[in-house]
Design brief:
Length: 174
């Protein structure tokens, strides 16, 4: 499914919202091609007082639109809430990234967001997946896989601490 975002500088908030609904999809920043029948598009418009959003989702040729989605963005942009919760999510992700790096796991790509992309040997990844939900991002080679670890406003510090401890344990087996 193509995820299309238009019209706002705070694209990250939109990505996180749509990725919550479609976690296995990677966003693209282009319009659907004629004949595409599996896509989601979100248009954001920042007015002098309000931000409004229009969502369109096409799946199998069926088109759905939603205008109430803009209310969540209005709430997010009041009183710096969006920036505060994103900063907290990013800081948790940075802790996880530092633990991966210190344990000896390389990265598929650098990231300055709440999403980190470490590369794990498949034998250790299988053990990590026994306790955690991780998204496979890319097969690096026959023996290694890049994964996506993602934090959010709802990620608890205790969960981050436990993941870091488990990453350190796995790193000793490299």
């Amino acid at each position: 499914m193509k995820l299309v975002f238009r019209g706002h500088d705070d694209r990250y908030a939109v990505e996180q919202s749509l990725l919550a609904f479609f976690p296995e999809e990677r966003p693209v920043y282009q319009e659907p091609e004629p004949g595409d029948d599996n896509w989601a598009r979100l248009d954001l418009h920042q007015g002098p007082v309000y931000a409004t959003a229009t969502t369109e989702i096409a799946h199998g040729g069926m088109l759905a639109k939603g205008r109430l989605l803009g209310l969540q963005f209005l709430a997010l942009f009041e009183d710096g809430l969006y920036y505060r919760i994103c900063r907290e999510a990013n800081e948790k992700a940075y802790r996880i990234a530092a633990a991966c790096q210190e344990a000896g796991f390389p990265f598929f790509a650098p990231s300055s967001t709440n999403q980190q992309f470490p590369v794990f040997p498949n034998r250790l990844l299988a053990r990590l997946r026994e306790k955690y939900a991780v998204s496979v991002w890319a097969k690096v080679d026959e023996e290694h896989t890049a994964i996506r670890l993602c934090t959010s406003w709802a990620t608890r510090e205790e969960a981050v601490d436990q993941l870091i401890a488990d990453i350190q344990t796995l790193g000793r087996e490299l």
